[in-house]
Sequence to fold (316 residues):
Amino acid sequence: MNREIVLECRHISHWFGRKKVLHDVDLKIIRGEIVALVGPSGCGKSTLLRAIVGTHPPCQGEVLIRSGAGAEAKLVGGPGRDRGIVYQQYSLFPFLTARENVALGPMLDQTDIPFRLLPFTGWRKIRKQHLQEADELLETLKLGEAVNLYPHEMSGGMRQRVAIAQALIMRPTILLLDEPFGALDEATREELQTMLLTLYAENCTRKAQGQTPAHTILIVTHELNEALYVGDRVLALSQYWNWKAAGFQEHPGATIIYDRVAPVFLPDQEMEYEVLRAQRKTIRATAFEEQFSQSRNAQIRFWEEIEAGKGMGVLQ
Fold:
């Protein structure tokens, strides 16, 4: 089965002076996936994300992105609108409503100040289109009643949804989420997890209809249950691997030591902890326990699993 690769990291290594952070990270992401990236604190998850965004190029290796089917892979040399990112601390303009915050990106991307100031330029028509698109996206993210609210009138979870809508309206090839729910309470966190599952269900529907899935997401999280719940695939980046057996005299940095398919849940399904228990235990032992330090490739089985038909959702 043909699976479109939209993002590829090739032999990414990064260091700060003598401190080795990442070592030989290889990764391919299929269009329509929600990939969850976990790992111990300080293992370099954010460093890898910044390499993909393009703000901090890797010391070694390269990141490639493909904007569409049949498009040539483009080398990432800096930030670009084909990669959207949402951080734990959302950044909304306090003087703009939810819809105005979301519509700001297209406005800045598609028009300039003279166009917006001069009469008879069609600005009002374009502005109406941007606001309508923002309203539709906010409705999809269950914020239809909040379109005219200002940030101070919204809860933390609502503000984070608006931040995600800001990124999605730009139609990025891949959306990067860096611990997006980490500062939220448990109930709000569950609501936003359901939101991601809604986007994933939309991907599955589009694929079943022969259309291109709209959302490809890489989410960094420190919660293993969340990773297994919202992702159709879980990656673990870790510094705890048997690097001495690989012939290194000193630690070369963290690398991916776990890559497996994950169960797929629908938006109206609650998290089934028993279903996740065995896989969560394996991830913890593989990536989070220093004394375990198993072989680097022992749990790298994702491509083998989907070729064997074990993938679900968009991976079927």
Observations:
- The chain has a mean pLDDT of 91.
